[in-house]
Write a structure and sequence with these properties.
Elements (H helix, E strand, L loop, with lengths): L2 E6 L8 H14 L5 E6 L27 H15 L3 E7 L7 H10 L19 E7 L17 H11 L3 E7 L11 H32 L1
Parallel strand pairs: 1-2, 1-3, 3-4, 4-5
Helix pairs in contact: 1-5
């Protein structure tokens, strides 16, 4: 048996492509016998901004005033939710070339040097655990495109979850999701549909493979 933590951050609650891709992943993961999915909707049930600077650090590394106990308790619940999961999948549309603020608030709560990130007083408890980050982009961000290099969200997730927290990060991306709104760009819209279909297929395959592999370990 294995547990997946499934995070959604899209503001679109009905027709979101990023949500559809993570849903395909989670459904395939849960198909393995005994596997479970814990779902947190970061947009519909938003987290507060981190209210105290000392919450950026594990307790042994703090040097300022004490955080509010309720804020600390929330952070502990979020960290425990992540540590209890065998895998993570998270969606994020590219908003203004960056992360949705709802997802940034979650990152600020769970990325804690001395607790979830390596430091002199702690090893990385999440080292090697799979994390699948799903991003959708309204335009074309591929090599040679005008927006190439302007995705300032995906590198943040790959850095924080991968390099900082030690997780094994895989990225699933679909572009041109807004091309269908312009009738003059039919070919770009068709390309966007192909990218979306491929992203769903890849997410489903990843979810099924990880679900079987992680479930068999328990």
């Amino acid at each position: 048996m294995a547990t997946l933590l499934h995070l959604d951050a899209s503001a679109e609650l009905v027709d979101s492509r990023s949500r559809a891709i993570t849903r395909a992943f989670a459904t395939a993961f849960a198909a393995a016998p005994g596997n479970t999915v814990v779902h947190r909707d970061l947009h519909a049930d938003p987290l507060p901004h981190l209210p105290h600077p000392e919450l950026h650090w594990a307790a042994p590394l703090r040097s300022g005033g004490a955080p509010d106990p309720a804020a600390e308790a929330l952070q502990e619940r979020l960290i425990a939710e992540l540590l209890d999961a065998d895998a993570l999948v998270v969606d994020f549309p590219l908003y203004n070339y960056s992360l949705p603020s709802a997802l940034k608030a979650w990152i600020d709560h769970v990325h804690v040097p001395g607790r979830t990130a390596p430091s002199a007083v702690s090893e990385a408890p999440l080292a090697g655990r799979p994390a699948v980050v799903v991003t959708t982009r309204g335009g074309d961000y591929g090599p040679g495109a005008p927006n190439a290099g302007r995705d300032h969200a995906t590198p943040v997730l790959e850095l924080v979850l991968g390099e900082e927290m030690g997780m094994d990060v895989a990225t699933v991306a679909a572009g041109l999701t807004l091309a269908g709104r312009d009738p003059a760009r039919a070919e770009r819209a068709r390309r966007g549909e192909r990218e979306y279909a491929e992203a769903v297929r890849r997410a489903r395959d990843l979810g099924a493979r990880l679900g079987r592999t992680l479930g068999a370990r328990e």
